Amino acid sequence: METAMETRFGEILSRAQETGRAVGAFTCYDLLGFEAVVRAAESYRAPVIILVSPSSFGAQGGGRLVRAFRAAAKASSVEVLVQLDHAGDERLIERAADCGVEAVMADGSKLPFAENLAFARSVVRSMRPRGVGVEAELGRVEGHEDEAGETLSGATTEPGDAEEFVKQSGVDCLAVAVGNVHGHYSGTPELDWGRLEEVRARISASLSLHGASGLPEADLERAVSLGVAKFNVNTELRMAYFR
Ligand code: 13P
């Protein structure tokens, strides 16, 4: 698979990893949430990713919401990139690209390996010429990315599969399942550090950690030190928003 041109998404993540950092990606449902996230990023002079969930993009006004985020991003003093999160439908992905997202997550993690790979390859083929970065998921980060239920961890990412998947799909970023879950952790989170290290050693793409809400700061730091370049947060942000 050709991966000639680096997307802005890929470039921001590679730069973060090279400097021992990770980029925070936060789900926003409106401009108030966006404002809070971007102000925080500005206070750290850090780039940031605004995640738009497929349910808010697919709802009425979803296109306008993405365009509003894109316009507001231009008025910020840090790099702000808008990503469609967890999309399993190529038509939704095309529509989001038409509205200006600079990255998409092609989520085929519920599919068998070959189908997940075919889906990710197809999305990379259509998005890369448009400069849109692609993230995929291998293994299964359980729980709903848009709902804050309590969750047990799902199928973990096999390092050998991850290597083959990245080589053949050409994705910029791979979301790994190493004991992380979306929503609230049931009990103390226990990430499989050995597995994370092995995946990192075998793939060239950036790594992302979904379900960062509820992970202790020391775990986040350790994940970043092992090469995770992006972490996704929704639950903690929404709890703060509703408070
Ligand atoms: P949390 O809700 O657990 O923070 O997960 C968010 C996420 O991974 C969005 O993709």
The CATH topology comes to TIM Barrel
Overall 3D shape = globular
| Radius of gyration, whole Å | 16 Å
What's the CATH C level?
Answer: Alpha Beta
What is the end-to-end distance? 47 Å
Main sheet summary: 8 strands, parallel, barrel
Structural class by sheet pairing and helices = alpha/beta
How many domains is the backbone divided into?
Answer: 1
Strand order of the largest sheet: 1-2-3-4-5-7-9-10
Strand composition percent:
15-25%
- Uncertain runs: none
Q: What is the CATH homology-level superfamily?
A: Aldolase class I
Bound ions, cofactors and other small molecules, one mention each: 1,3-dihydroxyacetonephosphate
Instruction: Indicate the mean pLDDT.
Output: 93
CATH architectural label: Alpha-Beta Barrel
